[in-house]
Amino acid sequence: MLTISYTDIDKQLATNIVNRVTSLLEEEFAKIDKIRNTDQYSVITDKMSVVEADLERLQDQIIEFQTLHNIMDVEIVAEELVKQVSEFQSELLKKEVEIESYGKVSNIRDPGYTKLINEKEAILNAISKLENGEVGDYPPVKDLPRLALELTKLKREADVKLVAYKALVQQSETLKLTAEGTGSTFQVLEYAEVPEMKSGPSRGKLVIIVTFAGFFFSIFFVFLKEAWMNIKNDPEKMKRLRGEK
Fold first, then answer.
1. Residue 103 neighbours by CB under 8 Å, 6+ apart
2. Distance between CA 77 and CA 88 in Å, rounded?
3. Distance between alpha carbon 27 and the CA centroid of its chain, in Å?
4. pLDDT, tens digit, for every residue of 224-238?
5. Per-domain residue ranges for the chain?
6. What is the CATH number of domain 11-182?
7. Residues 138, 81 contacting (CB under 8 angstroms)
């Protein structure tokens, strides 16, 4: 806290000087705050532009990645591929049991046996195509972990940039409010006022008055005592004072 004071015989003049100095300080600090806020706002807006550009670039990369590999969500794609592979493997197991059972009752490679073998090969071929990404627009199963990692990394970087961008926006809004005068560095708590004049004399004047009064009373008492002694020593005056003739 800063206290500004000035003493002068003219109390109104002293009050005006103090208030003028206070006003000048308030104006100067307002200029300093404005310059500082402008500089900070410029820095923040520049950072916002950079972060916004990075965020847009990452979002474009995510869209390009999803379009290239035909996956919006790796987990959903992986779940679907694993489900299809599991179904084919289940059919393959059943087909192998059928082939084994058929071979026990017939030693001849007849059309029935050949059909079962061909069906088994078809199932194996379907599984192979799924694993190698040759079915529809699905990526190869073996590439799913890598794709999931890459997509997760891109999304995580985009999330970080988004959080940083929101923080910068909040800072810029705070600086706007400060620039409008809601957070000045220099705040005047109270301006100076002219001191009230005392109704009676000051203590110094009272001391002088009492001193002079005592001095005059002392002189008066000395003269009075001297006059009394003169009367007392004069018989004629004493008779007159007593009323004697």
1. 113
2. 17
3. 26
4. 777 777 777 767 766
5. 11-182, 203-242
6. 1.10.287
7. yes
